[in-house]
Amino acid sequence: MKQGGVLAGVDGCKAGWIVVHRTDGAEPSVSVFPSFQALLDALPDATIAVDMPIGLPDFSRRGGRGPEALVRPLLGARQSSVFAIPSRAALYADTSDFTTVEAWYAAHRQASQVALATSDPPRGVSIQAFGIFAKIREIDALLIARPDLRRRIFESHPEVAFCRLNGGAAMTLPKKIKGAVNPAGMEERKALLCRHGYEKFFLDQPPPRGAATDDFLDAAAMMLIAGRIASGEARPSPDPPMADRFGIRVAIWA
């Protein structure tokens, strides 16, 4: 891993955000931060690639914001991992901290109602997407309040990253099967990461508390994309990127 500067690959996890990071060509480290702001405080100059949608639509159309439809065909059987994000209004329909399961499901229903009214064809909100709404809003609020951050925080996607790192060929095996980690799929990805400079012992270590093994590998892939972004090698989909109404870039980088 030759590139200098501070690089960070980020994925959401149960405890907040898992980050694989390194400084000035040193060996990588892995950390978990409870909030994205805490991550920024700890790594104030990092180029960051994060597996989270950045730049939100006012109205959702078939296939997603634009980047999703461009990258799905690259992924073959893995394309279902790229899901469409509903409108900003749906994402902000209920911003409460949920104390009960009933409240969580009620908020999901409310978000779906708003999504149906702000999409064509009308489309509700999947449980999978709703589960990361709070994290999407966390980054969105920071990028609205601090436009300077837009120069160093970039959206990526693990399966798109693995595909790009694999010379344009999608991974052949899934990371998970019916919600459980697929060891063969994990080993396929570890082997690819090792070809790009990681040591196997680093990838084989247990993830920090509050993060899962697949979160860890995704963050490791994101760090390689951060390096590609810093060196000017990464490319956005679409190229050039679109922008939302706040001027935030809308593109998946890899």
Q: Which characteristics define this entry?
A:
Nucleotidyltransferase, domain 5, DUF429 domain-containing protein, globular, two-stranded parallel ribbon, 5-stranded mixed beta sheet, 37% helix
Give your account of this protein's structure.
Pfam families: DUF429. It comes from Mesorhizobium captivum. This is DUF429 domain-containing protein. This protein is an alpha/beta fold. The chain has one domain: 2-Layer Sandwich (Nucleotidyltransferase, domain 5). It contains ten helices and eleven strands. The strands form four sheets. A five-stranded mixed β-sheet has the order 3-2-1-4-7. The chain has a two-stranded parallel sheet with strand order 5-6. A two-stranded antiparallel ribbon has the order 8-9. Helix 7 crosses helix 10 and helix 8 packs parallel to helix 10. It is globular, with a radius of gyration of 17 Å. The model has no long low-confidence stretch (mean pLDDT 94).
State the gist of this model.
This protein has helices at 36-42, 67-71, 88-91, 101-117, 127-130, 133-145, 158-165, 183-195, 200-204, 213-231, and strands at 6-13, 16-23, 29-33, 47-51, 60-61, 119-120, 153-155, 176-177, 180-181, 236-243, 249-253. The chain is of the alpha/beta class. It has one domain: Nucleotidyltransferase, domain 5, CATH 3.30.420.
